Amino acid sequence: MRKLLLYGLLLSAAQLATGCQQDVDIGPASYDELALAAGHWEWDQSTLGWAGNRSPATEGYTRQLVFGAGGKLLLRRRGQPDYHTTYQLSMGTLPRCGMGPASLPIITYSTQEEKLPNNERRTYTIEQRNSQQVLRIVGEDACVDGGAIETYHWVAD
């Protein structure tokens, strides 16, 4: 129950952060805030409700997400290329978690990670925290212990 409450609070905060924006504020359909600059998102931690927290310290490796032009995503481990895939940004709802008509930023991509599983469809938020850009990705089923909450910070090249 506590996990569900925590997830609800996280989604509410994300909804407040995006819910007050007009569609014009979100940017045109081709706008991709994840791939605009040279750099990568460095993994801080993943919270899997049913399996606890995972981080570079617990897993023994670093992990980076590199979003590129044309919807290309490179997942690196220890700074080395590990997995290539594509991603898509959209706006939508999370019907599995009872989130009503509010439209949230959605990122869709899949990975083949057994130790850090997550849904293909996820919400995301980017915020400034302690002079650092932070990316939070929340799996579609995190509210029912099926997905994960991932946290990254921006590292410019």
Question: Can you describe what's shown?
Answer:
It is a single chain. With 157 residues, the chain is an alpha+beta fold. It has one domain (2-156). The protein has 3 helices and 10 strands, in the order ααββαββββββββ. It has helices at 2-19, 23-26, 56-59; strands at residues 39-48, 52-54, 63-68, 72-77, 80-86, 88-92, 104-108, 121-129, 132-139, 148-156. Strands 1, 2, 3, 4, 5, 6, 7, 8, 9 and 10 form a 10-stranded antiparallel sheet that branches. The radius of gyration is 15 Å and the shape is globular. It starts with a helix and ends with a strand.
Domains, number:
1
Strand content: 35-45%
Low-confidence stretches: 1-28
Principal-axis shape: globular
Number of helices: 3
CA-CA gap between termini: 41 Å
Number of strands: 10
Major beta-sheet overview: 10 strands, antiparallel
- Helical proportion, percent range: 10-25%
Rg: 15 Å
Q: What structural class do the secondary elements suggest?
A: alpha+beta
H and E string: HHEEHEEEEEEEE
Arithmetic mean pLDDT? 79
List the helices and strands and how they pair.
Layout: H1 2-19, H2 23-26, E1 39-48, E2 52-54, H3 56-59, E3 63-68, E4 72-77, E5 80-86, E6 88-92, E7 104-108, E8 121-129, E9 132-139, E10 148-156
Antiparallel strand pairs: 1-2, 1-3, 1-10, 3-4, 4-5, 6-7, 7-8, 8-9, 9-10
